[in-house]
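hey
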């Protein structure tokens, strides 16, 4: 297996596959030295463990073998061309696993690699990278895997079984697009609102009645979009997500961590694509559109500040 992305998600699950006996190599960028020399230390509710990849390759480096699976666990950002990034490591027998956030993210990969199996994957997890080669996993961890745009294959079943063997609750899902919509029910409100609310964690957001009400309104719009997209969801998922978030250990969302670190946020994958789907179906989503507009300008301003020399700030 070849893993792109050794952040909070890629390291956590790449390490679990290694525990299950899979040969996992990684492609790294900023943390190449740390990963190649010392590996990655994961502090996890699954139990702490150390992940040392079989091989570590610099981005753009030489790939010397033909992987059965290429696992992409990078952020979904406009500036990251995933198809171009992985093209030299994809062979006819390679399955491409997109273990990423967002909705409607698979089309460009499926178009570029039309003869390859595309496995869409979702991680329902609270984890973060606390430093180079350091991951902290504080809650949850369930995975959902399925063929894009639908179905379950032997390679999906094999991958799911490897994760289960390492103690990761994993489901093989016939309708993985519906699963993506289900995850968006949580991501669409809480990731953006954590930033807009000046760094609020999940506990702080849930303690405010007005934020709870706004979150429910955003969730209702997500369910409306899912239905229009051909994947109807139960409205009871709204209260389940609220209840689960109240019970969750206080958690800073991945979007908030990116914002605080001056990194680009997954605005388009989580909100922009939803707004575009709404436009195609002539559906009004005023709450999602408002949050999208606010987050987009915060993202642009945050990135522009990062480019200013520190002495001029």
């Amino acid at each position: 297996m070849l893993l792109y992305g050794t952040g909070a998600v890629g390291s956590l699950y790449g390490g679990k596959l290694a525990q299950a006996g899979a040969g996992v190599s990684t492609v790294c960028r900023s943390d190449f030295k740390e990963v190649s020399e010392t590996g990655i230390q994961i502090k996890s509710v699954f139990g702490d463990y150390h992940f040392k990849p079989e091989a570590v390759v610099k981005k753009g480096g030489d790939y010397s073998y033909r992987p059965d699976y290429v696992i992409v666990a990078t952020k979904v950002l406009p500036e990251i061309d995933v198809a171009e990034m992985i093209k030299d490591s994809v062979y006819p027998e390679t399955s491409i696993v997109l273990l990423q956030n967002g909705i409607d993210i698979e089309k460009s990969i499926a178009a570029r690699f039309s003869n390859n199996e595309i496995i869409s994957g979702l991680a329902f997890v609270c984890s973060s990278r606390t430093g180079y080669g350091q991951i902290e996993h504080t809650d949850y961890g369930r995975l959902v895997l399925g063929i894009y745009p639908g179905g379950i294959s032997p390679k999906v079943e094999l991958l799911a079984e490897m994760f289960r063997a390492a103690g990761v609750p994993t489901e093989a899902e016939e309708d993985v697009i519906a699963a993506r919509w289900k995850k968006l029910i949580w991501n669409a409100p809480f990731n953006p609102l954590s930033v807009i609310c000046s760094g609020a964690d999940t506990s702080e957001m849930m303690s405010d009645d007005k934020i709870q009400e706004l979150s429910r309104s955003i969730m209702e719009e997500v369910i409306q979009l899912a239905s229009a997209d051909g994947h109807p969801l139960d409205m009871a998922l709204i209260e389940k997500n609220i209840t689960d978030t109240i019970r969750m250990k206080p958690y800073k969302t991945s979007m908030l961590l990116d914002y605080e670190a001056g990194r680009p946020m997954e605005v388009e994958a989580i909100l922009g694509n939803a707004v575009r789907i709404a436009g195609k179906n002539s559906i009004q989503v005023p709450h999602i559109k408002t949050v999208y507009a606010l987050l987009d300008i915060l993202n642009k301003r945050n990135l522009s500040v990062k480019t200013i020399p520190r002495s001029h700030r």
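The chain is about 45% helix and 20% strand. The chain has a mean pLDDT of 94.
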